[in-house]
Automatic annotation (TrEMBL):
Alphabetized InterPro entries for the sequence: PPIase_dom_sf (IPR046357), PPIase_PpiC (IPR000297), PPIase_PpiC_CS (IPR023058), PrsA_foldase (IPR050245), Trigger_fact/SurA_dom_sf (IPR027304)
Keyword tags: Isomerase, Rotamase
Domain PpiC, residue spans: 328-437
Native species: Mesonia phycicola
Identification of the protein by name: Peptidylprolyl isomerase
Source domain of life: Bacteria
GO MF annotation terms: peptidyl-prolyl cis-trans isomerase activity
Amino acid sequence: MAVLNKIRQRSFFLIIIIALALFSFVLADLFKSGGFTGAKNQNTIATINGEDVDRETFARKVENFQRNRRNVTSTQAVNEVWDLTLQESLLEEQIEKTGIKVGDEQFNNMLKQVYAGNPNFTNEAGLFDVAVLEEYVANLKVTSPQAYEQWKLMEKQIELQAKNQIYYNMIRAGVGATLVEGEQAYLMQNESVDLKFVLVPYTSVDNVEVSKEEIKEYVNKHKSRFEQEANTAIKYVYFEEKPSLEDDNAAKEEITEIIAQFNEAENNESFVAQNSDMPYDGTFKFKSALPSTNADQIFNLNEGENFGPYKENDFWKYTKVTGVKQIADSVKLRRILVSYQGSAIDQGNYTKTKEQAKALADSLLIAVNADTAKFDELAPEFSDDVSSKDKGGDLGWNRYTNARLTPEVKDFAYNNEKGDVELIENQIGFHIVMIEEANNFQKAVQLATIAKEIVASETTSSNLYTETTSFEMKSKDADFDAIAKEGNYDVKTVNNIKAMQENINSALGNQRSIVQWTFNEDTKVGATKRFDLNSGYVVVKLVSRKGKGVQSAEDASPVVTPILRAEKQAEIIKKKIAGKSMADVASSENVSIQSASAVSLSNPTLPGATSEPEVVGAAFSLEPGKVTDPIAGKKGVYLVELVKKNEVTPLNSYRTFAERESKSRSANALNRVNEALKSSAEIEDNRADFY
């Protein structure tokens, strides 16, 4: 009681302490989420040139995209919608600046393009009519205000598309080629030179060092080339869950235990359904359709004989031959199809009931049984198969291995004789089918196979989990590579992972959770974590996290070092060969004088070298017999002598070349404009905070 009295006496101070603790907790959370602007951050996917992209609006677009485009992941949908949103926003800003307006005539033309095939907006002549559309919209406004609002949004979208079209057309017009440029294009493609040259390769100069400071200086001079997105790098060890030798033996033992029962079974299909990990397949097969590993042994068995147990891929199997017969490799068929209301192919255009269709099919069967030539007469009139009715019901040749036939028709076609006619019913209607011809009969076998999949047992899975967890714990506080080496594990590295990336590499595939972990502020560089995969586990170490900006000297080194090294090597070579003739250079540098014929500016490739536009361009400026000064190319330093310039006959008009050049420029212009707008925009991309 004394303790309780003391608590009561000091309750006021306890309340104050608790309140302060709660307040500090709230403040910490507030600052962590971006201070008092956190509410905005939580509702803004991105900011493009000062304009916010609302989270809810963006999320609806992503949902619609996934609904319309199946087989895309959430991240793929987010990235696709982001690209479209960014492009629309940047274009809208440019259109507003240029003051582009859409006239009534152009807007109506856009409406016509969108709704030309819609019967709601066509007149009595079957043509799109703006007046009919306007009447429809006016009626919509009165009868369905919600649908009318959706229509207004659609109109706004169509107007935006029209403005985009005008903007792009202006760009295309601006990049067109003049006749003078057409002439230049003609000369570049057709004018050529014959020349001689010596090439002193850069590899002839050894021990050229490039310092970190030189790389840094080069990067600072070319910052735009070395801009990078925020990125991370990881190391990982993959622990694949796969069956052990014990699991393999267990699957084989399961098969072995039921072989005797299988051999005695009278109903193979039922036995396979109850005891096998693979479904029953009772179709007759040619040898080419059997798995190649055991095809010879199985195909040469007689009916009633068996083979196995044998291992095939991830299964232990046992097979017995239940049938052997000769089957045509291909058959030629005729068919009359009679369908009905409610069949699998009915789209509201069939008028016959199922009973009426059956009665008609029966009468047609009697007619063609009496005279098979009647197919030519009856199919055009009665068949519902639009692809064959006008050909007398001719289905052409169908190979057994890839016949384009329904199962019921195929079963009849390959199990009966030439000239046979039968009425077959299935979900699409009634088929009157005739086997017109059958070719190349050969042996086929029917098999019944029981299979047991070789899978990792609970013991195997548990052992792998223990092994993975042990590696994870050891690597948290020790050298990742050293621990991996002790366990004989293979360490893989993945660099330059972007914030909205999903696919890690070909081995791990889509692992969005790993990417998010590497960018999470709470994940420290050097941290290690285990991730569960469908096929096992992966233990990942975060090696680095780099912010958006210019690359460091270390990161840029693989690109910059060869450039700077080549520049230094070029200067050394130029000094060595300065003032020397081509013959002297060839002799002193142990290289040969080479020749090249008909080299053009449009294809400036020299023998034994890559494309060398600067070298070839210098040759075009020479007079015959003259030699260039040493020129630094891509592979080394060149001396070039012009032997002859091959002039071309002038054309009366260069319009064709100008039009071709305009078309080429136009094709690339839109992409270049979009990239230019993107690179000059101020973009704050927060997608990774939400997805």
